[in-house]
Amino acid sequence: MAKISKRYQRALQKAENSFFLHRCDVTSYAEEITSWGEERKIEKAPTRDIPCRLQYQPQKQWQKNTLVLEQNAEAILMYGKDREIIPGDKITVWMEEGQAPLIFWATGYAVSYMGHNEIGLCAVREV
């Protein structure tokens, strides 16, 4: 892989910070089998302060040839290509300072675009 100049890295960081308006913590889980054969999930240390952008897309439904946008919305997390988020990871999104964080579970696999990755989120609740 080619070495990136410090100037180019700063420009990328500036562009990333202008696109990713929010911050998130990602907690992954590992499966462990105990000595007596029980399988359990162990929470790994979270990766903190990841630049991201939370976006909602209304769910669409057709009724009698009319498009109806439901109040429920699908949450999508956009984040940098240097991060990996897999299904089942817990995502804590910090929208604004002083506001309660939002908790999500990653669903499906990330879709990769030229400048970022996107993954669907579910189980929205406030802490």
Q: Let me know the largest β-sheet.
A: 6 strands, antiparallel, barrel
What is the correct CATH architecture?
Beta Barrel
Rg over CA atoms: 18 Å
**N-to-C series of helices and strands:** HEEEEEEEE
Strand percent estimate: over 45%
Number of domains: 1
Query: What integer is the average pLDDT?
Result: 82
Q: What's the number of helices? A: 1
Strand order of the largest sheet: 1-4-5-8-7-6
The shape is globular
- Give the CATH superfamily: Protein of unknown function DUF3599
Question: Which structural class do you get from the secondary structure elements?
Answer: mainly beta
- CATH class label: Mainly Beta
**Number of DSSP strands?**
8
Distance between the termini: 42 Å
**Low-confidence segments, ≥5 residues, pLDDT <50?**
none
CATH topology, by name, is Thrombin, subunit H
What does this 3D model show about the protein?
The radius of gyration is 18 Å and the shape is globular. It has one domain: Protein of unknown function DUF3599 (Thrombin, subunit H, Beta Barrel). The model has no long low-confidence stretch (mean pLDDT 82). It has one helix and eight strands, in the order H-E-E-E-E-E-E-E-E. The protein has one helix spanning 6-19; strands at 22-27, 29-33, 39-43, 47-63, 66-79, 90-94, 102-112, 117-126. It is 11% helix and 57% strand. By secondary structure, it is mainly beta. The longest helix has 14 residues, at 6-19. The chain has a six-stranded antiparallel barrel with strand order 1-4-5-8-7-6. A two-stranded antiparallel ribbon has the order 2-3.
